[in-house]
Amino acid sequence: MSSELADQAEETAKSEDGPPSPATGGDGRPGARGFTEALLDAVTSGNTVTVTVLAFLCAIFLGGLIIAFTNTTVLHAWGNLFSAPGKAFATAWDTAAGAYVAMFEGAIVNPHAVSAAFHGGPVSTVFNPLSETAVNATPIILTGLAVAVAFRAGLFNIGAASQFIGGAMIAGWIGFAVHLPFILHAAVAVAGGLVGGAVVGGAVGFLKARTGAHEVIVTIMSNYVMEYLLLYLLGLTAFRRPGNPNPISPPIATNAVLPHLFGSTLRVNVGFLIALAAAAAVWWVLNRTTIGFELRTVGSNPRAARSAGMSPERTWIVVMLLAGALAGLAGAAVVQGTNFNVAPQIYGTYTVDSITVALLGRASPTGTVLASLLFGALRAGGVTMQASTQVPVDIVTVIEALIVLFVAAPPLMRAVFRLREPRAGGGEQLEARGWGG
């Protein structure tokens, strides 16, 4: 009798409890169904991660179409579309796929190198694509952080190139004009690059804080000032390589070169570790320090920050010093890690690259690093792609531009893929102050 009563009580309790909650699932495991629903919600909603992934896939798809239909063989095959449709589609697919396979082999791993390594070939060739990706990504990480940290303070730093040049000039001069022991020489040159960039960036922050000059105008003009200052210095005897008619500096001393991480056959060097350490330091400053809190508060609302006792002017100077130091580190990394001298076009396309990866990474250190690694992989793979398939390396720039275009237009991506609007607070808004900021 007692066992029957116990069974009835258990059945009553089950009926009162009702059906299993979605968070526990039908099998009683906590969170089983809740995790599935959360995953589906993340995939079907147009949040930041979903939009970024879909933007990358769309850019790859459109890039493949451009690769295919700018190829004369493909165009000839499509001229006979109605008589040989299979050949037309196969030729287009093979052309685009071949280019992307070559890009992958140049940026991530080459199966032929792996096979050769198993048969007695050099193991270093297996890691060469990853090494080239890291080398290409290093200055982009640092200049991207220079723009991202300014974004977080509500400033639009378009002067990454000028700050890069400031760091490259000082690091290069210390590298070839100063004589110090090994390791110390490299460390002093890196520190010089940091200071050189910080001086250029700090000047922008000082002008904005004291005179109200808009940072967009000042940083654009600083790019021109530093470019022509570099040309002027390279024309001087003290900064020009003896016996060379071209405007190029002497090579830096061997003691000032950043050491390679995995032997001389792989170009990846300590500069890559410096870039990762800088990203970690920026994350810590932004999220774990009082300065970071003030920086983010000023970026959100300068008037509210002033009412709370904060000084936006002081914050602008500090953040531009930090941004300039990061871009200056990029200049030092290039001079000491790959170029080993200072030349007129050493700053490359880092002004555009830095803004691009900062926007793509939503001005977060982690996002900026990931976006920079993506761009580094595209750059490294593009060289191999051109060498293997004769597809111009310029297609890499097109793909990068398409990625940014789609990332910057979330409503377009949601409309194309029929995604729902993200929930409130589901993504971080990236905003820089306008002309009146």
Structure description:
This protein has 437 residues and is mainly alpha-helical. It has helices at residues 2-17, 32-44, 48-69, 72-79, 85-107, 111-118, 124-152, 160-177, 184-211, 215-234, 270-288, 290-300, 302-307, 312-339, 350-360, 365-389, 394-407, 410-417. It has a domain at 138-371. α11 (270-288) crosses α12 (290-300). The protein is globular, with a radius of gyration of 27 Å.
What Rg, in angstroms, do the CA atoms define? 27 Å
Residue-averaged pLDDT, rounded? 85
Give the uncertain stretches in residue-range form: 1-6, 12-26
Along the chain, the helix and strand elements come as HHHHHHHHHHHHHHHHHH
Sheet with most strands? none
Oligomeric state of the chains in view: single chain
What is the first-to-last residue Cα distance?
81 Å
Give the % helix: over 70%
